[in-house]
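Structure in, sequence out. Go:
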């Protein structure tokens, strides 16, 4: 299966290179707008590529210094935009003719070459070599994976200019091996939280201590900078913000990778998360920051899971923290404290997040009961797998040395 990803990277360019890129963008936008003008005669919108090629290619080559591939890309951009306008017209909706103003231009493998840490880009006056600005600790970021991994091919990029900097949005693709979906699909349930960012139905805990520590540090720092109120302080606040985001993202990437490995090493084909809608109402201590972190984490896992042939599902979170994962009894009193789950009916007792993770997994089985084929048949626990026939212990060879119902960190 082919998987495609886009990775954004800032460029380090000299003033002369920046001038050349600006001139290239200017002429690219001019070319796209020229094609739009040619395509519209006041009554009829032409969207056929071959006709517009005939009509505009020589003119644009003559009046610009653009690489021939830029001339073609500008035309393609104009045609895409025209087609969407014509689509709206045909539905009776109002739409004005496209005008290209935002600063971008498109690259493909013929007018750009992408390397591990730099790209060579055609401009209106020959090629330039632009270095990528990569994160200092680039371990486990998309940059390392999609730009430097052997399995990923860079197929093209869009150059953007925003607030004084050039960025490449590089398109990459890879062929990934997808295992045949297992008929006996097994679910890894995941509970998300403020104290433990993630806990799996197999009993693995990822503490949120590091994230919380950084967040506190960041909030303090920002507060003291804001009190200064100077322009310098304002810029520092933004710089701290960018640095923070990078550090958090990297940490969440690491958790996502480990979560995925946990699913794969336990033979799971599906990873279940709770649906994040209204999560801040359900977890009283969750701030906007936590919601952001949960969304980042689930989207990283979804991306990485797809590449490995696993699927990610979101389940209804209702009562996952109050329901007993052992007997199904649901009551608020089952949850005497934040960390503790104690069933008032059967006496089952465990860490509350672990109990919730198992429920998230079960939820997927329950909602899919009766579904034909492909529906997961079991939830992986650290003591075995639970399916319709009850608990089946995991063979010793698979989980040797892991204590049932234990807490790892
Ligand atoms: Zn119970």
């Amino acid at each position: 299966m082919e998987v495609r990803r886009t990775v954004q990277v800032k460029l380090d360019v000299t003033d002369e290179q920046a001038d050349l890129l600006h001139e290239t963008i200017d002429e690219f936008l001019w070319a796209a707008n020229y094609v739009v003008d040619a395509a519209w005669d006041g009554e009829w919108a032409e969207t056929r590529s071959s006709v517009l090629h005939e009509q505009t290619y020589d003119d644009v080559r003559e009046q610009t210094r653009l690489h021939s591939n830029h001339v073609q890309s500008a035309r393609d951009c104009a045609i895409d935009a025209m087609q969407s306008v014509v689509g709206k017209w045909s539905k009776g909706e109002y739409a004005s003719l496209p005008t290209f103003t935002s600063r971008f231009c498109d690259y493909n493998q013929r007018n750009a070459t992408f390397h591990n840490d730099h790209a060579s880009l055609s401009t209106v006056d020959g090629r330039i070599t632009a270095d990528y600005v990569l994160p200092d600790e680039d371990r486990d970021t998309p940059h390392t994976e999609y730009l430097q991994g052997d399995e990923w091919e860079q197929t093209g990029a869009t150059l953007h200019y925003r607030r004084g900097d050039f960025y490449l949005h590089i398109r990459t693709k890879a062929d990934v091996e997808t295992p045949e979906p297992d008929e006996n699909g097994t679910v890894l349930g995941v509970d998300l939280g403020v104290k433990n960012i993630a806990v799996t139905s197999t009993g693995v805990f990822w503490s949120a201590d590091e994230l919380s520590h950084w967040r506190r540090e960041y909030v303090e720092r920002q507060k003291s900078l804001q009190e200064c109120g100077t322009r310098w302080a304002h810029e520092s606040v933004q710089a701290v913000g960018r640095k923070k985001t990078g550090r958090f993202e990297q940490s969440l990437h690491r958790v996502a990778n480990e979560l995925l490995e946990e699913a794969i090493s336990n033979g799971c084909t599906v990873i279940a998360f709770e649906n994040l809608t209204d999560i801040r109402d359900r977890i009283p201590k969750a701030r906007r920051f936590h919601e952001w972190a949960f969304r980042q984490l689930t989207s990283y896992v979804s991306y990485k899971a797809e590449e490995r042939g696993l699927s990610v599902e979101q389940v209804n979170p209702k009562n996952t923290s109050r329901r007993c994962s052992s007997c199904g009894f649901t009551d608020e009193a089952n949850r005497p404290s934040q960390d503790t789950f104690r069933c008032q009916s059967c006496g089952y007792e465990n860490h509350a997040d672990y109990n919730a993770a198992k429920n998230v997994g079960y939820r997927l089985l329950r909602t899919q009961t009766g579904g034909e084929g492909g529906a997961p048949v079991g939830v992986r626990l650290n003591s075995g797998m639970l399916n319709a026939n009850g608990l089946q212990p995991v063979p010793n060879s698979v989980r040797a040395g892991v204590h049932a119902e234990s807490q790892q960190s």
